Amino acid sequence: SSTMSLSEAEVQSARCAWEKIYVDAEDNGTAVLVRMFTEHPDTKSYFTHFKGMDSAEEMKQSDQVRGHGKKVFSAINDMVQHLDNSEAFLGIVTPLGKKHATQLKIDPKNFRIICDIILQLMEEKFGGDSKASFEKVTNEICTHLNNIYKEEGW
């Protein structure tokens, strides 16, 4: 019934890794976005209200950056809760992908960038095992998002 390539054990260890970082969803979500905007400044162009912000400090304090960081982490959290139910998982990923493809016109490579930064942060905070156990989840998310983009004609 599942299109997911994760075993039950992989789902469990991915959830454990995710829980550690999700405890501080707003701070960690913000850290991920700030790192993305700093290391890939072109990604800021999608967020009109972040454009003028150049310092990481300024971004960290911004309610809009914090709000979006939390939103990103909440969306991933919903996906993580449904890794063992592909229908529910796709029910979350599909509208999100469609919105980013059609309304927001976000280049799909940015999903990979944000996932890689989440993995980096996990490794820094909790070590390589956490990163390794969550890597399959990020691949799963990015694969599904890319498929939705293809369906939308990207």
From TrEMBL:
Name the reaction it catalyses: Fe(II)-heme b-[protein] + nitric oxide + O2 = Fe(III)-heme b-[protein] + nitrate; H2O2 + AH2 = A + 2 H2O; 2 superoxide + 2 H(+) = H2O2 + O2; Fe(III)-heme b-[protein] + nitric oxide + H2O = Fe(II)-heme b-[protein] + nitrite + 2 H(+)
Q: Which residues form the Globin domain?
A: 5-150
Identify one Pfam family in the record: Globin
**An example Gene Ontology molecular-function term:** heme binding
EC supergroup of this enzyme: oxidoreductase
Matching entries from InterPro entries are given as:
Globin, Globin-like_sf, Globin/Proto, Globin_lamprey/hagfish
What are the protein's UniProt keywords?
Answer: Heme, Iron, Metal-binding, Oxygen transport, Transport
Q: What is its EC number?
A: 1.15.1.1
What family does the Swiss-Prot or TrEMBL record give for this protein? Belongs to the globin family.
Known PANTHER family for this protein? Answer: CYTOGLOBIN (PTHR46783), GLOBIN FAMILY PROFILE DOMAIN-CONTAINING PROTEIN (PTHR46783:SF3)
Role played: Involved in oxygen transport from the lung to the various peripheral tissues.
Listed name of the protein: superoxide dismutase
Q: Which organism is it from?
A: Brachypodius melanocephalos
